[in-house]
Write a structure and sequence with these properties.
- The protein has a domain of 70 residues: Ribosomal Protein L15, Chain: K, domain 2, CATH 3.100.10.
- It is built from four helices and six strands.
- The chain starts with 57 loop residues before the first helix and ends with a strand.
- 16% of the residues lie in helices and 14% in strands.
Length: 148
């Protein structure tokens, strides 16, 4: 019977660790493969992968280029049509109602997307909606109104 104490890796799977600094007869004595002097021969010294020996780094040598819309973008909270099915006996959907029923938790503009099905007639007043979401709401007999 095989016991957990008898388990061992197959032959050749585990390589022996190179033992550094164990005398000149080992072939890795003295400086232990680190060379002579310099920062990398000292303990605790690391060379970061992006370090270029003190020369001006590539990221700073190249000119700045392009434009980022990051600071000016509008960050919408995404809401799907299937999430509206959780709201029972409500015929008008507004951001306040969504926060009250904890469907949306953060403040800010809300965008309605068209994933899921809707069977009830709803009047939805949100900041934005996809074309498919508007089609689904209108095909169920409701209407979408964009608020600012």
């Amino acid at each position: 019977m095989l016991r957990i104490g008898d388990l061992r890796p197959p032959d050749g799977a585990v390589k022996k660790k190179r033992r550094l600094g164990r005398g000149s007869g080992s072939g890795r004595g003295g400086t232990a493969g680190r060379g002579h002097k310099g920062a990398l021969s000292r303990s605790g010294s690391k060379k970061r992968p992006w370090f270029e020996g003190g020369q001006m780094p590539l990221a700073r040598r190249l000119p700045k280029k392009g434009f980022s819309n990051y600071h000016f973008r509008k960050d919408y909270q995404v809401l799907n049509i299937r999430d509206l099915s959780r709201l029972k006996d409500i015929d008008e959907i507004t951001p306040e109602i969504l926060r009250e029923h904890k469907v949306i938790r953060r403040p800010g503009p809300i965008k309605l997307l068209g994933e899921g099905e809707i069977r009830t007639v709803l009047n939805v007043k949100l900041h934005k909606a996809s074309k498919i979401a508007i089609e689904k709401i209108e095909s169920a007999g409701g209407k979408f109104e964009e608020i600012i």
